[in-house]
Every structure is written in structure tokens, then in C-alpha cells.
Specification:
Catalyzes the isomerization of 5-dehydro-4-deoxy-D-glucuronate to 3-deoxy-D-glycero-2,5-hexodiulosonate. GO terms for molecular function: 4-deoxy-L-threo-5-hexosulose-uronate ketol-isomerase activity. This is 4-deoxy-L-threo-5-hexosulose-uronate ketol-isomerase. Its cofactor is Zn(2+). By secondary structure, this protein is mainly β. It has a single domain, classed as Sandwich (Jelly Rolls). The chain has 2 helices and 24 strands. The strands form 5 sheets. The chain has a 7-stranded mixed sheet, with no helix packed on it. A 7-stranded antiparallel sheet has the order 2-21-18-23-15-14-13. β3 and β4 form a beta hairpin. The longest helix is centred in the first third of the chain and has 8 residues. The protein starts with a strand and ends in a 7-residue tail after the last strand. Bound molecules: 4-deoxy-L-threo-hex-5-ulosuronic acid and zinc ion. 4-deoxy-L-threo-hex-5-ulosuronic acid (D54) binds next to β14. Zinc ion binds next to loops.
């Protein structure tokens, strides 16, 4: 598990490309037969990907947590962006298909991930946050995730938002999680841009063709920087940072938040005309 400490807005504004990538980009997460995790000290989230192929993969405990097991004081949200597979939590089996989600509350001791077909493996994006009470384990398909259509073709941002873990969906201590699918021809995500200093956020891009890239824009609204990202990479968005971007084709991304509250709509707008 990689450990990432926080960076101030001022420090970030002075970083070069390599430093920005080292601090905020999470690369090489989806590796056959591996689970790769990054611990960020922004709200103490742990994010990453489990990609089981022929054998099950366990959610490992880590010395840094000083816990008896990973979910002793944590909850976790899981979204499958690959082939069919199973998430098994203390014997409870969740059959997952592409874009279905599993929530596991505090107290689950043994968690494993497996793929049904090694030729079309499941790819599980994970986001875990500290939790102070147990909420029930839950499962939701994309159809159950209350799709909302946003944006328009004239601004190249026609997209559908699916919310899984939120105040009116699967309940959690602090995790808020869902995904956004851009229509073909639409390339801009999360416009108009916003911040929410109450919550940090992680974006995980997927269904982006291998020869295409997303120009993810981060930083304070008047100090923007970009990270050029490929498929199955994640970016840690600090609470003070914008998080939006433009792709060289359409794509999808998972968004996952943690922090002070779970009010999805309380973003602070950073209008396009205010950006620098
Ligand atoms: O705080 C909310 C998150 O940034 C995303 O949900 C925004 C998003 O998915 C979109 O507009 O497409
Ligand atoms: Zn946001």
C-alpha cells in the first residue's frame, strides 16, 4: 500500500509535471492477479483496484492501520468495471456484473474478490473510509442507481450520473460514491467545475480506449494544472481542488467522496469564466 500525505494549495501550485503526478495520480492499479491500494491522508481514504484472474484475492490488512483486519474501523465501496465476478464478505456472496456496486460496512473480517471467467476478469475499483458505526452490507446494479441525465451535446458534455452510495441510496458513515458515463461525442466531465472543501474526491477513469487520454484538470480554480491520464488510472482530488476534464474520446469515471458531510449537491461552483 502506498502512503500519500497531503499537499497544500501553495505547494501544489509550484509543482512540475512529475511532482504533480507523484502526489495526485495513482497509476498501475489494475494489474492481473493483484490488489493495489493507495492510502491518502486527505480524509484518510484508501483507494485502489482489485483485479482477480484465476485465483481469489483477499482484501489485505496493513501494518499502517494497526487494526486486526482491514474493515475493523472502516467501510468500503466497491464498483466492478470489468467482467462478472464475486465479492465475498464473511461468507456472504455478492454476484457482481459490470457497473454493479457492493457496500461493506465496518466489521466485515474476511473479504475476497474473484472473477467468474479468467478470460474476462472482474475489475473492482475500491474506496474505503474510516467508519464509526456499522451500516448493512448492500448491493446495487446500475439500473438501481437512479440515473440522472446532465449536460448537452452543444457543450460536448452529455452524460448520465449513477449514484450508488449516498443519502437517498445505500447508506454509509461518510462514503459517497457513484459513476458518470459520457455519451459518444461528449468529452467534458463535471462541468461547470466546482470544489467542496468539506469533502475530498477520487476520480477513476474507465472505458477510455487505450490510445486515448483524459486531460484531468486540478488545482485551485485560479491555479489550474492538468494531469494527462489513461484508462484505469485514479486521481486524488484535494478538498480545495477542482476536478473536471476533457477526453480525446468519450469515457466513464467513478467518483468517490469522503469528508464532513454527504450532501452531493452542496458544491461550490467555480464558473468557467472564473478559471485561470
Ligand atoms: O462532487 C461531485 C462529483 O464531482 C461528480 O459527481 C460530478 C460528476 O460526476 C459530473 O458532473 O459528471
Ligand atoms: Zn466533486
Amino acid at each position: 500500500m502506498q502512503i500519500r500525505f497531503q499537499n497544500s494549495p501553495k505547494e501544489t501550485s509550484r509543482m512540475n509535471t512529475a511532482e504533480l503526478r507523484e502526489n495526485f495520480l495513482c497509476e498501475n492499479l489494475a494489474v492481473n492477479g493483484e490488489i493495489n491500494l493507495v492510502y491518502s491522508h486527505y480524509d484518510r481514504i484508501i483507494t485502489g483496484v482489485a483485479k482477480p484472474v484465476s485465483a481469489p484475492i483477499a482484501l489485505p490488512n496493513n501494518e499502517e492501520l494497526k487494526a486486526d483486519y482491514f474493515l475493523e474501523r472502516r467501510e468500503i465501496g466497491i464498483i466492478n468495471v470489468g467482467g462478472n465476478g464475486k465479492v465475498i464478505a464473511d461468507g456472504q456472496v455478492f454476484n457482481t456484473e459490470k457497473l454493479s456496486a457492493v457496500y461493506l460496512g465496518k466489521g466485515n473480517k474476511e473479504v475476497t474478490f474473484e472473477s467468474d471467467d479468467a478470460n474476462n476478469p472482474a475489475i473492482y475499483f475500491l474506496m474505503s473510509t474510516p467508519a464509526h458505526q456499522k451500516y448493512d452490507n448492500a448491493y446495487l446494479t446500475k439500473e438501481g442507481a437512479t440515473p440522472v441525465n446532465l449536460g448537452g451535446i452543444a457543450t460536448s458534455n452529455e452524460r448520465t450520473i449513477y449514484k450508488y452510495i449516498h443519502l437517498d441510496g445505500i447508506r454509509s458513515c461518510q462514503l459517497v460514491m457513484g459513476l458518470t458515463v459520457l455519451k459518444p461525442g461528449s468529452v467534458w466531465n463535471s462541468v461547470p467545475p466546482h470544489t467542496h472543501t468539506r469533502r475530498m474526491e477520487v476520480y477513476f477513469y474507465f472505458d477510455l480506449p487505450e490510445d486515448q487520454r483524459v486531460f484531468h484538470i486540478m488545482g485551485e480554480p485560479t491555479e489550474t494544472r492538468n494531469l494527462i491520464m489513461k484508462n484505469h488510472e485514479a486521481v486524488i482530488s484535494a478538498p480545495w481542488s477542482v476536478h473536471f476534464g476533457c477526453g480525446t474520446s468519450n469515457y466513464s469515471f467513478i467518483w468517490a467522496m469522503a469528508g464532513e458531510n454527504q450532501q452531493f449537491t452542496d458544491m461550490d461552483p467555480a464558473p468557467i469564466t472564473s478559471l485561470k
